[in-house]
Each structure stands twice: as C-alpha cells, then as structure tokens.
Known about the structure:
Blueprint: H1 16-37, H2 39-44, H3 50-69, H4 74-89, H5 95-119
Helix pairs in contact: 1-3, 1-5, 3-4, 4-5
Amino acid sequence: MTAxxxxxxxxxxxxxxxxxxxxxxxxxxxEALVLLMAIAPLAVIEAPxxxxxxxxxxxxxxxAVVLAGTMRRSWAWHGAxxxxxxxxxxxxxxxxxxxxxxxxxxxxxxxxxxxxxxxG
Length: 120
C-alpha cells in the first residue's frame, strides 16, 4: 500500500496569499500612521534627543509605507521584521518609541503566525 500525501489545509479564503499580504500591508500602514501621530507628543516633550527621535519616527514611518507597498516580494516580510527591531532600537532616543516598538513587534509576531497558519 502506498500512502497518499495529506491534502493541503484549506483556509476557506478565495485568495489566501492576497489576504495575508493585505494583513501585512494593513498592519504596516497602521504602524506608519501611529508613528506619524507620535511626532506631536515627541515635539512637545522637552528631552535631550527629541529631534533625533522625531527624525527616527518619520524615517521609520516612511520605511513602513514602502514595505507595505512591496508586500508581494518575499524580502518585504523580512524587512518588516527588521523594522520592528529598528523601532525598538529607536527607544534609545526616547522611551515612548521603545513602547511602540514592543507593541508593534507583538502585533507583527501575530501577523507572522497568521501567515504561517494560512499559507503553511
């Protein structure tokens, strides 16, 4: 007797690749918006490295938008993972960026989990 290979799991989605890509792009877009909204409180707070923290927030927001637009490429998923690390590293400039970094790293970990479950 030959064993038949198990059928691939069906997610019930018409286009699972597109759905996962949309989830990743949407998450990165929300992250970019939150980073841009973080500029106002950073500008009000008088801290030693406020200018650098604002520049980092803008640069990371731009990077998030670029990555959201390139989610069709496999490297964009890796780049978005690196983005979460960079945001946590930006916490050295201001603690609030570290908090955002941890929050979005957890969200991104969930996105990667959903991607693995749906696409295998």
